[in-house]
Amino acid sequence: xxxxxxxxxxxxxxxxxxxxxxxxxxxxxxxxxxxxxxxxxxxxxxxxxxxxxxxxxxxxxxxxxxxxxxxxxxxxxxxxxxxxxxxxxxxxxxxxxxxxxxxxxxxxxxxxxxxxxxxxxxxxxxxxxxxxxxxxxxxxxxxxxxxxxxxxxxxxxxxxxxxxxxxxxxxxxxxxxxxxxxxxxxxxxxxxxxxx
Length: 196
Prior knowledge:
Blueprint: H1 4-28, H2 36-58, H3 60-66, H4 71-83, E1 87-101, E2 107-122, H5 158-176, E3 181-182, E4 186-190
Helix pairs in contact: 1-2
């Protein structure tokens, strides 16, 4: 079965080639470049081409090729991640609106940020149950192995879970009292310093 990425790529490629064939055949039949069918075809060819390149830049395979590493570097990365304490991070913003008069004398509403920041909940103790993926040998028939993984972290007991919830609610209360409005609070797990 095809995954979502491959299915989207097939639709984009089919659309691109269909419209390109339509343009070429219309051109040979004497249709002018300013004809509505030709303009529509040109727009769809350009859109399909740009969509194709955006899918290429987002695919796991292309990301893996750009970030290629040796198996030893992958082992080292996983070991570093396992040895570092996981961190729950939360970020938020506080802001308000002010009315200003521009140089034409028109009043406009302007958003003013008073706070943008983040806080980290660091675990004192943790158990890492990660297992290094079983990577087969690199051969001529199989020159590239793509490894994709996610980091999952959750409190190991009810006390830590309660402390984490208290930490989040205290941070939200702190940000909410700083100004009249708050943005969306974002929560993520940071495994290696500098990576989100």
